[in-house]
Amino acid sequence: MIMLENIHFTYEGIYTALRGVSLQIDSSELVAIMGSNGAGKTTLIKHINGLLRPQKGRVFLDDRNTSHMSVAEIAREVGLVFQNPDHQLFLDTVEKEVLFGLKKLGFSEDEANEKAQATLEKLGIIDLVERSPFSLSGGERKRVALASVLASQPRILALDEPTIGQDALQKRYLAELLMEMNSEGKTVIVVTHDIEFVIEHFPRTIAMADGRIIADGPTGSVLSNQEVLNICSLTSPQMTQAAQALGKLYSDISPRLTQLDELEYAIMQILGSGIQ
Amino acid sequence: MSFLEIFQYTRQDSVIHNLDPRAKLVLSIALATVSLLFSAIIPHIIVFLFIFPLIVASKSVRRWTKSMRGLSVLLIFILVFNTLLSSAEYPFSYSLALTFRLVNLMTSFSLFFLTVHPDQLSQALIQMRVRFEFAFAVSMAMRYVPTLGNEAYAIMDAQRARGVELDKGNLLTRIRNIVPIIVPLIIVSIRRALSVAESMESRAFGACENRTYLEKLAFRRRDWAVVILSLFILTLVLYVNLIVGLPDWMLIGLPF
């Protein structure tokens, strides 16, 4: 469980990124954090693994105050994947890159090899093991960086913009992988602008703007709330737009639908009643 | 990394900012040369008392203080190691002078970099008959220093998140820990250089042989005054130092 209590953070006394953020994320939750650029999303997840320390407020991991833990200690439990894979990769083969983090976190040689193989296979980059990360495409590098963090199987996984530069197929693989990890009891937190990705896969959404949490709750209700969307500079999900357009013709269709099957059901209802 | 801030341009309206960059270049080089000439404490203090008001005049005291705080680790390092390893008669006194010298050197150059906008710098170089491509490269290098600094921080974060402990272990481990920072930094810079080059070319960089400029620098009376004063001080100090010799009271150091 992650608990943030009234977190404040200001960069170098110039730019205030967080103005009193409190939230609780239980273990094995799937949470999306959304919001405009500069809303404080990245700053927020950096507090979870201790890269940033709150200037006011406290961060707890399972009732342990993280102010007493080093980043390396927290890294064993919280894996953070950054937006730019080039900030991570520095070794000459993909395999070494994945093994590096595992060794740093204190896994034995055999254990590390096993975990690395499994992760590479899962992410579909097992045939790249001998390649240099620098010769790979942007999307592939992103997956290598992801693998290097996933390999240690942290209990909590936080990803910053994982869908950028990934095609539809890779996005689906990524979603499947995250769902699978979640079903194994892992907490998954994703920071993203990709509203459809969130709608499809994440039951809970936290919407942020200007260093504050604007809304926190079931994805459907957060992302169909026009006021929240306006404050957070988000556009309505496609399904909601479709529902709103149809709602003008058929008042039975709620303008706050977000899921394909909800809309399908609503249309079926109307068609059904029409037939009758 | 905060000590780099002293070399980063800040927009201000001050007497120093409004000087011609070429005049400031002469001033900075003169002051830096003067700082290099001495190895006793008192002359360095005098030099400092001369430079510091210029920092005040450029309204950059806060930035200067912050940079010096960032530099303090290195300064203490120089002080300690020189004292331990120096073969001078009074090692501590000598090392203290060396430390002052570094502060003076940094401060004199910062006077230039703090107050000259990268565009002004390239314009100054061009009017000093440096080719446009080179002048542009120099001003671009200056422009990217802070970007590189931010990048370094981001990389450090990314590696720490993977369990690299940057501030732990003996000297050897710490040196080894630099590799995961330096390699991505170089790669990212090369990638960026390539993409900047491509975007420059797509905007017709180098299409015309002869460029014209919207703003040209012009020397004013006060710029000449600064140049003449700088050269005068430089000549005077060189003359006193090399031919006359410094007065005895200036050479007094600490007796240990």
Textual characterization of the structure:
The complex is a heterodimer of chains A (276) and B (256). In chain A, 41% of the residues lie in helices and 22% in strands. Chain A is of the alpha/beta class. The longest helix of chain A has 16 residues. Chain B has 256 residues and is mainly α. In chain B, helix 6 crosses helix 8. Chain B is flat and about 65 Å long. The model of chain B has no long low-confidence stretch (mean pLDDT 86). The interface between A and B is medium-sized, with 25 and 20 residues.
Question: Helix and strand layout, with pairings?
Answer:
The complex is a heterodimer of chains A (276) and B (256).
Chain A: E1 2-11, E2 15-25, E3 30-35, H1 41-48, E4 56-61, E5 64-65, H2 71-75, E6 78-81, H3 94-104, H4 109-122, H5 138-150, E7 156-160, H6 168-183, E8 187-191, H7 195-201, E9 204-209, E10 212-218, H8 219-223, H9 226-231, H10 238-249, H11 260-275
Helix pairs in contact in A: 3-4, 3-5
Chain B: H1 21-37, H2 41-57, H3 61-85, H4 91-115, H5 118-127, H6 132-161, H7 171-176, H8 179-202, H9 221-244, H10 248-251
